[in-house]
Amino acid sequence: MNDGLGHLVVDGNEVLEFKLVRDQDDLEDDKTSFGPEMCHQVFGENENIFGYTDLQIKLYYSAGNLQTYLGISYTDKIDSKKFGGLKADDIEGEIKKVLAPGYVTNIDQFVSMLKKDKIFTPYGKLIQSFNIESNNGGPKRTFEVYYCETSTPGFLAYHERLQTFLLWYVDAASFIDVDDDQWTFFIMYEKYPSNSLSGTCSYATCAYATVYRYYAYPAHLRPRISQVLTLPPFRKLGLCANLVKTIYSHFVIKPEVLDMTVEDPSQDFQRIRDYVDAKDCELLPAFQPDQLAQGFSVEMANQARSKYKINKKQARRVYEILRLKHTNTSDKIAYQQYRLDVKNRLNAPFQKKKLEMKKLQKVLKPDEFAATLTALGVTETQHRLANHYLALEDEYKRVIHRMEHY
Fold first, then answer.
1. 374: how many CB neighbours lie within 10 A of its CB?
2. Which of 264, 182, 170, 172 is nearest to 208 (CA)?
3. What domains lie within the chain, and their CATH numbers?
4. Residues 37 and 169 sit within 8 Å (Cβ to Cβ)
5. Which of 181, 182, 266, 384 has its CA 20 to 30 Å from the CA of residue 362?
6. Residue ranges of region Interaction with histone H4 N-terminus (predicted)?
7. Is residue 389 within 8 Å of 339, Cβ to Cβ?
8. How confident is the model over 114-129, as pLDDT tens digits?
9. What distance in Å separates the CA atoms of residue 192 and residue 345, rounded to the nearest whole number?
10. Is 42 helix (H, G, I), strand (E, B) or coil?
């Protein structure tokens, strides 16, 4: 900024500190801290905060029930009288808009909440439990997934606190309408020993997903996974893949469910979904190597839907991943056949556009036709499709690498 006020402008991402607090010792342990990935949905597009020196914003949640503490500290604040009425940004005012009611600004009050958090038990119905190896060679870690609906007693107040994480980690995030009872929720917790002498355990919130049960004529459902978030301290553990498997397991046994869909998946989530679906489908008869070499088939789509509720579009993607997995890329002919198969699918919309262009060429003057080609970006489309294939193959290889090593 001009007038020597640049030192009063800070990047909100750099001054925000998050914690999932299990006990009071975590408050002083830097290892339990993590930051946001974005803050433009709270502080504006440029993500800056103005008016403070040595600003720190602490947003702490009790690990289980997510009771919330907001702490704002600084050594100095702009004097609006000295700078023509310029005021410091209202930090608490902006954060208050997105936090659930009931947050506290007194750290001692928050510490007192931690005692109650020790006896917190998850809402809803336990539907999955699994263990993973500890990174430090200690005992296995236990994780549990609970299923909730909007009618689950006490859950909506907890969810109101949980969904606030979306704004810091999911671009274009929005809060769902919990008045609609077609929403379902899958919450993952780590179950950890809180007292070795008594053998009692406590829970820490790890990840969650929301799924909307869309109606499908005449008497079916087509569940759509909407929001999925693994909190930063629990990433790189394979928890999201386990959460997706749990969601599938919940719906796949229901005869009224046609198939599963995903609402605008991020690249990271699509990769996890591909991994889960490909691991499942590679066991099906229709997806065996000899069948894959013959191209995508109706039987593949049918088996994927019947066994795992995978929709046709995703089944095709799984086919391409598995065919690449079983294609010897050193065999020029086999590799070329694979590339042509995928490119033909990618080119289908473009081929349709070319047919439309031929029709227009017959009725337009040469200069008008040339202008139309430019306006529709036909040449650029061909270039984009080539890049699309290369990017897609790279994504597929990442999925295959995970399949082969995990």
1. 11
2. 170
3. 6-117 (3.90.360.10), 125-264 (3.40.630.30), 340-405 (no CATH)
4. yes
5. 384
6. 45-47, 212-214
7. yes
8. 999 999 999 999 999 9
9. 48
10. helix
